[in-house]
Amino acid sequence: MTTHLPASLIATLPGPYYTDPEVFRLEQERIFESMWICAVRGADLDGPGAFRTVQVGRESVIVTRNRAGELRAFLNVCRHRGARLCTEESGEVRRNLQCPYHAWTYDLDGKLIAAPNLVKMPDVDRTAYGLVTVALREWLGYAWVCLADEPPSFEETVIGAAVERLGDAASIERYRTQDLALGRRITYDVKANWKLIVENFMECYHCATIHPELTEVLPEFADGYAAQYYVGHGAEFGSGIKGFTVDGSAGFDRLPEVADEQDRRYYAITVKPTVFVNLVPDHVILHRMFPLAEDRTVVECDWLYAPGVVESGTDVSRSVELFHRVNVQDFEACERTQPAMASRVYRSGGVLVPTEHHIELFHTWLLDRLRDHPSGPA
Ligand code: FES
Ligand code: FE
Question: Following DSSP, what letter does each residue of 210-259 receive, concatenated?
Fold first, then answer.
C-alpha cells in the first residue's frame, strides 16, 4: 500500500518501527550502545562505594565512585562465570565490589583483587580479569556513559547538539545545572516506545488539547508551536504569570547567572537519544529515558533547584506539580498511541502537519543510524 499525501503533510515512521522487537534490537546496538547516554546524577553517588546500576542498551552498567572520589563505570558482569555483580538498583559497598556467586572481589577501579583459592590457581592473571570499564564523562552534574569501543566526540554529539538548539553555549551554562540540588525525582514507567516520547516532546501541536496548566503559563504553546521549533527560542511566560508553577504563582529567585533575556522564559532541548533538558529561570528539569523494550520506557525526571531552596526545606510542590502534570499528560498520550502502532491503519505510518515537520529530522536521523553502520545495513 502506498500513501499519497498532500505536499503540506509528511509521513511518520511506519507503525512497525514502534512495535517490532527486531527494530528495537537494532536501536539498542546502533543507538543506545553506540552513543553517549546520560546515566546517573553524580551527586546521587555521595561517597566512595556508592553505586547505581542502569540499563544501557542490552547491558547493565554499574556507576560508582572510587576511593579518590572519581566516578567510574563498569559492565555489571563478573569476569568469572558471568554473574551480575550488583543486583540492586542502587546501594553502597563498604570497600569493594564482591560477586555474590563465588566471591571474586574487585576494587572500585575494577581491578580483581581477591578470589577464593586463587593462590592455588597461579595461572589466573588478575590484571586480565578486572571488570570491563565503560567510558564516562560528566556534564550538567550527570555521569554520561558510552559502550562504544571508540566513543563519538562528547563535545560534538552531546554538548554541541544541546548548544545547537539554544544558539550559544553560554545559554545553558548560565543555569549551572551541575551546582543545583535535587528537589524532587519522579520515575515514570511508560508503556510506550521511546520514540513516541521523543516525538511528543518535540512538538506542541498537542499542548492546547492536553496541557491546560502549561498553556496557561506559556500562552504561545496554545498555538501549537514548540519552543524547539526555532533555534534559541524561549517560550515567554503569560503576562499575569509570576512563576513556572502549576497555578502561575511565584516560584523562587532567578538562578544567579541566568541572563535578563532568559528571564520569564522556558527553553526545551532534546539531547538525542534519551535526554530532555527544560530550563526556566529558577530551576532545571532533566528527563533521562531508559528504553527497556519496544513498548516500555522508564523515565527518570529530576527537578533541580538552587541549593539554598532545597536545604531550607522550602515547599517546591507547586513548582514540581506543573511539569509532573505535563509528564503524566504526555505519557498517557504516548500510552494511548502505542497499541495503535500495531494496527493495520498505521502500517505505513501517519502524518506530520506543518508545525510538526521538524520531527522528520528525528526520523531521518534514526533511519540513518539504523542503516549506516559498520556492521551492515538493516
Ligand atoms: Fe562471580 Fe563466580 S561468577 S565469582
Ligand atoms: Fe506535551
Answer: H-HHHHHHSGGGGGT--GGGSTT--EEPPTT--SSSTTS----PPPTT--
With a 6 Å cutoff on the Cβ, whether 81 touches ligand 1 is yes
Sorted by where each starts, the structural domains of the chain and their CATH numbers stand as 37-141 (2.102.10.10), 167-369 (3.90.380.10)
Neighbour-count burial for 239-249, b at 16+ CB within 10 Å, e otherwise:
eebebbbbebe
Tell me the pairing of strands 90-92 and 97-98.
unpaired
Q: Does the predicted interface ipTM exceed a cut of 0.85?
A: yes
Q: Which residues of the chain, if any, have pLDDT below 70? A: 1-7, 119-123, 226-231, 372-378
Determine if ligand 1 sits within 6 Å of the CB of residue 99.
yes
pTM of the model: 0.94
Of all protein residues, the one whose alpha carbon is nearest to atom 3 of ligand 1 is 81
- Phi first, then psi, for residue 107 (nearest 5°) are -80, 180
